Amino acid sequence: MQLHRSRLKKDILHIALVGNPNSGKSSLFNCLTGLNQKVGNFPGVTVDKKTGMAQFSPSLSAEIIDLPGSYSLYPRRLDEWVSYKVLLNQDELIQPDLVIAVADASNLKRNLLFCSQLIDLKVPVVIALTMMDMAKKKGIRIDTERLERELGVPVLIVDPRKNKGIPQLKKAVELTAQQLYQPPVRDFVDNKALAPTAIDEVKNHFPSFSDYRAIHYLINHENFLLSEEMQVTIENIEARNKFNPTKTQAEEILQRYSRIKQIMNQVVSEPDPLQKKLFTEKLDNILLHRKWGYLILFSVLFLLFQSVFWIAQYPMDAIEWAFANISSLLAQSLPDNRWTDLLINGVIAGLSGILVFVPQIMILFGLITLLEDSGYMARISFLSDRLMRSVGLNGKSVMPMISGFACAVPAIMSARNIENRKERLLTILITPLMSCSARLPVYFILIGLVIPNTHLLGFLSLQGLVMMGLYLLGLVMALIVSYVAKWFIKIQEKSFFILELPSYRSPRWNNVIPTMVNKAKIFVFDAGKIIMVISLLLWGLCSFGPGNSIQQVKNKYEVLKSAPGADTSSLDLRLQTEKLESSYAGILGRAIEPAIQPLGYDWKIGIALITSFAAREVFVGTMATLYSVGTRDKSSVRLKEKMKAARKEDGTIVFTLATGLSLMIFYVFAMQCMSTLAVVKRETRSWKWPAIQLVYMTGLAYLLSFLVYQLFK
Fold first, then answer.
1. Is it the case that residue 373 has pLDDT exceeding 80?
2. What is the rounded CA–CA span in Å between residue 136 and residue 156?
3. Are 218 and 202 in contact (CB under 8 A)?
4. Does the reported pTM lie above 0.70?
5. CA 358 – CA 316 distance, rounded (Å)
6. 194 CB neighbour count, 10 Å cutoff
7. Domain 5-177 CATH assignment equals 3.40.50.300
8. 412 with 400: CB under 8 angstroms?
9. Rounded to an integer, what is the distance from CA 522 to the centroid of its chain?
10. pLDDT averaged over the chain?
11. Within 13 Å of residue 541, how many CA atoms lie on the same side as its CB?
12. What is the tens place of the pLDDT at every residue in 526-537?
């Protein structure tokens, strides 16, 4: 395929950046584009699309599209299909003018398979050889000039980490864009011999096609943008020539590797395979050990989780402090009316609920990026694959699940790394069962209420054991749910856990900040819009009631406060409680009371269940308001005392052991987080799965809470 001259007249060249996974493609993308990047999704699929602008010369600007990693032009995974359709010009929105193929010099034989296929498509290709330092450590020497002659396309050595070879690469791209480098006339292998008559018949309808492109139309035309008439025509060509796609693909791959072997013998010199093992292999003997490997893995995951928890706490506290001061300042400066209440308790509170998650998201993805760059992330997936596969997942599911202990929002976003759609969906569905940090305030207050502060064997805290049990309960139930759900999700897609263990490398620190910023932007501008809408709806439910019910409550307390010697502070708190009871949220609490009574809850706990849907930790704040905790003293001790003294209308204690345990179980399993539902909707591109998630988790929470309450009451 010749480069379109009409496009060359434009100022911007469209370049597709492709390569095998772990070949250094992302490093080259970051090096070429710097911070001038955008992250989105390919149309119709939730696969990351990175685009960025690069200046190749004063007269040539380029938009670079970082396509998902692929091992060959025979796609198996969803992300490989995305790359495949772009390279075969079957994407309506992305039509690259030129391809930069990144090849790992330390694994050249495998990488040349993909490169040779691109060359036979007759697209303008420039090959960038990376990992040359690793190749040298292995004793591999490559004659790049001879390799360039054998392939017939430009071959450049680059080191994106050290910014080496980038000017030469840009020059080669510019010359190729000017058509000074032409795709080789001769095919890399004899494609015509694979199906001569069928190829000729396809080329009769598409004269500009190469033989190899025609083969792909015979194999995958059902997935291409073709008219129904053309689909039937190609089907007839296949039937008439008894075309066998599987046999053709196998013969082609054998031909390519035979030709690649010849080239490798001429351009590559390798050391004796019995040479001393590299540092990477020695380290793997420890990190992938049958016993020590798992101990090291659990230690790394523990530190990851604790780091997110510890480090994020400071900026999260700062954000909450800032919004609290902003709300206080606005409350003092603005008149006391409905619009001020909307601004402070609706808009400001909603923004706080969004931005408070940002530190966790940024820190989690920053640490994951470091683990990925170092090469250890692949080892985590490898070690956990056996357990995950037994319940319908695979090794790549473990990181989202572990990340869910900090926050389900970034954890679900990180599930994008799972290629298989069914396994990715299962991971998304069960990740919220991990006890996130938002549940901790609920656990703390309830455990302190109903679990005695005693020690077993003199050193094991009973309260600590209960806390650990809640975390383990969520994890075990997640695996059970996944095992059951895998039989109901009818996505027919083969699961391939093809995992290349990359060499250990020093992390690219300059790649961490862009990744953290991009993930935060995705959350704030996509999920944040939905969160704001639901926050405002919740404010409305808590601020308004039917008719003039709220006004009647206000009038009642104005009369009480005007009485001589009235305790206005106490009356104000009672006013807030009664206003909440008269609001739509209070009415909902009363309405659901018959349904939640079997769990041991009253209408006030019902209101907390409703309001805490915005965020689980709102439960504690709602309890503080409902039980009239003094505004000047909001310590947890005071709150526990008030809750311990709380009585139902019949005079019985509200927070018994049975009720407390029931509430803990409810919050372990219930989907009480609109942020999570918003992100699930975004990641699955449907309200179907968030709805299923909400129903099954709420049902599970209700059933198990009921059983626990009935058992302990």
1. no
2. 16
3. yes
4. no
5. 8
6. 21
7. yes
8. yes
9. 10
10. 81
11. 18
12. 656 666 676 677
Q: Which residues pair with 460 in a beta bridge?
A: 456
Distant-in-sequence, close-in-space partners of 373: CB < 8 Å, separation ≥ 6:
505, 506, 507, 508, 511
Residue among 132, 669, 710 at smallest CA distance from 433: 669
In the chain, CATH 3.40.50.300 sits at 5-177
Query: For the segment 439-494, what is each residue's pLDDT rounded down to a tens digit?
Result: 777 787 788 888 887 877 766 678 778 877 888 898 889 999 999 988 888 766 65
For tokens 């808590």, the residue is 542
Strands 125-130 and 60-66: unpaired
Which residues, 6 or more positions from 28, have their beta carbon under 8 angstroms from its beta carbon?
17, 100, 102, 128, 130, 158, 160
Measured CA to CA, the distance from residue 299 to residue 305 in angstroms comes to: 10
**Does 669 have pLDDT greater than 90?**
yes
Joined tokens for residue 33: 């584009």
Residues 569/560, Cβ–Cβ less than 8 Å? no
C-beta of residue 111 within 8 angstroms of C-beta of residue 104: yes
Token reading at 632: 């000047």
Look at residues 407, 409, 387 and name the one whose alpha carbon lies nearest to residue 397.
387
Amino acid identity, position 373: D
Q: Is-contact 408 434, C-beta < 8 A?
A: yes
Cα 381 from Cα 427, distance rounded (Å):
14
Q: Sort strands 12-19 and 60-66 into parallel, antiparallel or unpaired.
A: parallel
**Strands 98-104 vs 60-66: parallel, antiparallel or unpaired:** unpaired
Runs of H (alpha helix) within 334-461 = 338-341, 349-355, 358-374, 376-390, 398-403, 408-413, 421-430, 440-450
> What is the C-alpha separation between 698 and 605, in angstroms, rounded?
16
Phi, psi of 100 (to 5 degrees): -105, 115
Pair type for strands 455-456 and 155-157: unpaired
Instruction: Give just the sign of the alpha carbon dihedral 368, 373, 377, 378.
Output: positive
Report how far residue 304's alpha carbon sits from residue 368's, in angstroms, rounded to the nearest whole number: 9
Nearest to residue 515, comparing CAs of 165, 45, 94, 66? 66
- Return the minimum-mean-pLDDT range out of 241-250, 563-572, 597-606, 653-662: 563-572
Phi and psi of 209, rounded to 5°? Answer: -75, 145
